[in-house]
Amino acid sequence: MIGYCLRQYKAEDDAEMVKLFQETVHSVNAKDYTKEQQDVWAPKEIELKTWCKAFKESYTVIAESEGKMVGFANLDGNYFDRLFVHKDFQRLGIGAMLAEDIESQAVKKELTYIDVQASITAKPFFERCGYKVIKKQRFKRNNIFMENFVMKKSLRKC
After folding, report:
1. SS3 labels along 134-149
2. Ramachandran area for residue 35 (φ above 0: left; ψ -120 to 50: alpha; else beta)
3. How far apart are CA 5 and CA 1, in angstroms?
4. Hey, which residues does 79 pair with through a beta bridge?
5. Residue 97 host element (H or E)
6. In angstroms, how far is CA 94 from the centroid of its own chain?
7. Cα–Cα separations (whole angstroms), residue 61 to 14, 96, 155
8. Does the predicted TM-score (pTM) go above 0.70?
9. Quick check: 115 and 152 in contact, CB under 8 A?
10. How many CB atoms lie within 10 A of CB 54?
């Protein structure tokens, strides 16, 4: 059985993260988004410095298996900004492991909730993790309409 571990983000992860992101959107999300939507969401050319700036300024965690990056997640304030799992490592618990780590970090920061904008593809995953849909939204990016869901999870203990 292959094991997975989590580690903190390093600046040298940027190129591999972009590649994982692009491949995931263009394969895993292809069932829910058109080619044009995938292309505006994860274009072929991404400026590394700009795209990865948020990772350097917030909490970012990397999932690895045998030295290979298989996923990553990011928490920026109360916002669960990104969660992507490599296209060949779907449904192996990596997303849940990353989400648990992000939520644990949020609790350490004494946050009372986390917001996420989940894709159509990711919505069922986040629902299983206890997130509730606040609203469905439709927006335009580079003249292409996209849809996702604003979701929220309370971290407050009753």
Report:
1. EEEEEEEECCEEEEEE
2. alpha
3. 13
4. 76, 115
5. helix 94-108
6. 12
7. 12, 13, 19
8. yes
9. yes
10. 14
Cβ atoms 70, 86 nearer than 8 A: yes
Instruction: Specify whether the CB–CB gap between 95 and 71 falls below 8 A.
Output: yes
Q: What is the pLDDT of residues 15-32, one digit of tens each?
A: 999 999 999 999 999 999
Vertex 109, ends 104 and 112: CA angle to 5°? Answer: 80
Beta strands in 1-143 (DSSP E): 5-8, 59-65, 68-76, 79-85, 113-119, 132-141
What is the residue type of 88? D
Amino acid at 127: E
Token pair for residue 66? 């045998």
User: Please, what is the end-to-end C-alpha distance for the chain in angstroms?
Assistant: 38
153 alpha carbon, distance to own chain's centre: 15
135: tokens are 């609203």
pLDDT in tens, 100-157: 999 999 999 999 999 999 999 999 999 999 999 999 999 999 999 999 999 999 997 6
